[in-house]
Design goal:
This protein is of the alpha+beta class. It has two domains: 162 residues, Ribosomal Protein S5, domain 2 (2-Layer Sandwich); 129 residues, Alpha-Beta Plaits. It is built from ten helices and nine strands. Helix 7 packs antiparallel against helix 8. The radius of gyration is 19 Å and the shape is globular. 41% of the residues are buried.
């Protein structure tokens, strides 16, 4: 058995803001992917994955929801026959490793599933997001459902608000100097502790004010610029966003990268922002000159995502 491929995702804009109903933009990232496979001889990583899927099976078996039901007998039989999730998506890196797994399980075992080939109305998208939120909460304690949605549809998704999401057309890549890239912090992060820090910060009125008056405004402007292809304005807004994140989200930025982050802002060689919840994993970078950014960050591993 080999299931269809499900890709990683990158939340270009909107980390944390989408929890509080501001805009977000997520794109598939097909450098990393995963698929369900079966082996007669489980060992190492595949054995660990199978054990994790057994726990996920128990969680799904106990879901008491009108939203979705699953073919649990088939799921259980496949697990007993050595099913595991074969994935190249790094875990704890903010690129949706659990999202791809959730999408693959829904695709294979959900009854009356909404398929990618249907006319995806807003109601269907919201239902899928709600189902995925329920499923992925097993991994994170609290999930928006966006990572699995992105992986399942393999389309860019624009989040206008919790109740308003739509597939987005993004400008095709150009062979220009500018780029979006990933910077490897070389340490895994965990979503749940980071979200808990954020929720504690939200009790502070000043932080809430910053989120709505600075963070959300810059995020929304970045999304608008990116979708419209306004590159010059985009970099101005990304710089503003990078400053706000460095000032207000320090616990989510690994300590070793505080100076690297500030250096980008002061030199204009690149601008950094969180990729997912932060705390480790990848950091997202934007630059008007990728070669210059590579020289400036020569001690770090970079991966190209998108060219301007």
């Amino acid at each position: 058995m080999r299931g269809p491929l499900f890709y990683a995702k990158i939340l270009l804009f909107g980390e944390y803001g989408i929890i509080k109903d501001s805009k977000g933009l997520a794109i598939p990232y097909n450098t990393y992917r995963g698929a369900l496979k079966t082996s007669d001889n489980l060992e190492g990583v595949s054995q660990k994955s199978n054990a994790s899927l057994h726990q996920f099976y128990s969680y799904i078996s106990n879901l008491n929801s009108d939203l979705v039901s699953f073919n649990l007998n088939e799921f259980k039989t496949d697990l007993e026959n050595g099913m595991y999730f074969d994935s190249s998506i790094p875990q704890g890196y903010g690129v949706g490793s659990s999202g791809a797994l959730v999408a693959s399980i829904y695709d294979k075992y959900a009854n009356d599933k909404i398929t990618v080939l249907e006319n995806l109305t807003r109601e269907k998208l919201l239902k899928l997001k709600a189902v995925f939120s329920l499923m992925e909460s097993f991994f994170h304690g609290n999930s928006s459902g966006l990572d699995p949605l992105n992986s399942y549809l393999s389309l860019p998704i624009l989040i206008n608000s919790k109740e308003n999401i739509e597939p987005a057309g993004i400008p095709s890549q150009k062979e220009g100097k500018g780029a979006v890239f990933l910077l490897d912090s070389e340490q895994a992060g965990e979503t749940e502790p980071m979200v808990n820090i954020f929720m504690n910060k939200m009790k502070n009125e000043g932080f809430r004010k910053m989120l709505s008056e600075e963070f959300a405004i810059h995020t929304d402007a970045c999304i608008e610029d990116f979708l419209q292809g306004n590159v010059k304005s985009l970099f101005s807004n990304v710089k503003s966003l990078s400053k706000v994140v460095l000032k207000n989200f320090k616990p989510m930025i690994p300590d070793a990268f505080h100076k690297v982050w500030a250096k980008g802002i002061s030199t204009n060689d690149y601008y950094l922002k969180l990729c997912g919840s932060g705390g480790g994993g990848y950091i997202l970078g934007f630059t008007q000159d990728y070669e210059k950014a590579q020289k400036s960050l020569e001690n770090y591993k970079l991966e190209l995502v998108y060219r301007f």
